[in-house]
C-alpha cells in the first residue's frame, strides 16, 4: 500500500466513522477502487490501526466525559456516572453477541461487498430521513433505550449501515435529546473497538513488516485528525437537525456503488 492510499483511507475512516455515512462501506468502496490488491492480513492490520485512531479521537473529544465516567465508576456509588456506564454496557450486549457467535458470517459480508454496501447505504439514508423529522425532546437514555440502540449498533456491523447514523437515528426516533444521543452514540462504540483490537492482537491476526510502518503511520495520523474534526462537527449538526443532507449523500453514493458493481 502506498502512502497516498494510506492517507486517503485514513481521511475516509476519520470522517465517516462519525459522519453518518458508514465508514466500513466507504473503506470497502475505496479498496475496490484501488483495485483490491491488498493482502487480507495487510487489509486487516490497516483497518485495526484506523479504527484505533478514531477510537482515540473519540476519547480526546469526550475526555471530560470519560474522566467523569471512570472516576464515578471507581467510587462504587449509584451516581449518574455509574448509571451511564451501566447503560453503555447494556448497549454493547447485542454487538458482543453478534461479534462472538457470528464472526465468520459477518466477515463473509465483507468479501466483494460493494453491491451490499450500496443497498445498505440506502437503508442508512432512510433512517437519517426519519430521524431528521422526529420531534425534538429532552429525554435521557433509559436502560431499555440503551438496549434498542445497541441492537441498531449490532445491525450496523453490516458494511454500508452507518453505525453513528443508525445509533443516533434510533436514539432521536426514541425521543432522546439530540446532543445526548450523539454523546451516547460516540462513547458506546469505544469499548467495542478497543476490545476488537485486543482480540486481534492477542489472536495473532495482525502482522506488520518494515515496509508497512510508514503507510500505517500516515493512515493513523490522517484518521485521528479527521476523526477529531468530524466528531465535533457531527455533534453540532445533530443538534441543528441536518441529517437529511447526509441521507441525500448516502443515496447518491449508494446508487453509484450499485452501478459500479453492475458495470464492473
Question: Would you mind describing this structure in some detail?
Answer:
- The chain is an all-alpha fold and 264 residues long.
- The protein has one domain.
- The protein has 12 helices and no strands.
- The chain has helices at residues 3-18, 23-33, 40-61, 63-74, 80-101, 103-108, 114-132, 143-155, 163-173, 178-202, 213-239, 243-263.
- Helix 3 (40-61) crosses helix 10 and helix 10 runs antiparallel to helix 11 (213-239).
- The radius of gyration is 18 Å and the shape is globular.
- The model has no long low-confidence stretch (mean pLDDT 82).
Summarize the structure.
The protein is mainly alpha-helical and 264 residues long. It has helices spanning 3-18, 23-33, 40-61, 63-74, 80-101, 103-108, 114-132, 143-155, 163-173, 178-202, 213-239, 243-263.
Characteristic terms for this protein:
12 helices, 78% helix, 264 residues, globular
Which helices and strands appear, and what pairs or packs with what?
Layout: H1 3-18, H2 23-33, H3 40-61, H4 63-74, H5 80-101, H6 103-108, H7 114-132, H8 143-155, H9 163-173, H10 178-202, H11 213-239, H12 243-263
Helix pairs in contact: 1-2, 1-3, 1-11, 2-7, 3-10, 3-11, 4-5, 5-8, 5-10, 7-9, 7-12, 8-9, 9-10, 10-11
Amino acid at each position: 500500500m502506498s502512502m497516498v492510499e494510506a492517507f486517503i483511507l485514513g481521511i475516509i475512516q476519520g470522517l465517516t466513522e462519525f459522519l453518518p455515512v458508514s465508514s466500513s462501506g466507504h473503506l470497502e468502496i475505496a479498496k475496490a477502487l484501488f483495485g483490491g490488491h491488498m493482502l487480507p492480513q495487510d487489509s486487516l492490520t490497516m483497518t485495526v490501526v484506523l479504527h484505533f485512531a478514531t477510537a482515540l479521537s473519540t476519547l480526546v473529544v469526550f475526555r471530560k466525559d470519560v474522566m467523569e465516567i471512570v472516576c464515578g465508576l471507581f467510587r462504587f456509588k449509584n451516581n449518574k456516572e455509574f448509571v451511564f456506564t451501566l447503560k453503555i454496557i447494556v448497549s454493547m450486549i447485542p454487538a458482543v453477541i453478534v461479534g462472538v457467535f457470528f464472526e465468520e458470517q459477518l466477515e463473509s459480508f465483507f468479501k466483494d461487498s460493494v453491491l451490499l454496501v450500496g443497498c445498505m447505504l440506502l437503508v442508512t439514508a432512510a433512517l437519517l430521513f426519519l430521524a431528521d423529522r422526529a420531534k425534538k425532546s429532552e429525554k435521557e437514555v433509559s436502560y431499555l433505550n440503551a438496549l434498542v440502540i445497541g441492537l441498531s449498533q449490532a445491525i450496523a456491523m453490516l458494511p454500508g449501515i452507518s453505525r453513528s447514523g443508525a445509533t443516533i437515528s434510533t436514539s432521536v426516533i426514541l425521543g432522546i435529546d439530540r446532543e445526548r444521543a450523539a454523546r451516547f452514540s460516540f462513547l458506546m462504540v469505544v469499548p467495542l473497538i478497543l476490545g476488537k483490537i485486543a482480540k486481534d492482537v492477542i489472536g495473532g491476526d495482525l502482522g506488520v513488516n518494515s515496509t508497512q510502518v510508514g503507510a500505517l503511520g500516515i493512515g493513523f495520523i490522517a484518521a485521528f485528525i479527521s476523526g477529531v474534526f468530524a466528531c465535533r462537527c457531527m455533534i453540532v449538526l445533530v443538534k441543528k437537525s441536518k441529517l437529511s443532507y447526509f441521507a441525500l449523500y448516502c443515496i447518491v453514493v449508494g446508487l453509484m456503488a450499485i452501478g459500479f458493481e453492475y458495470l464492473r
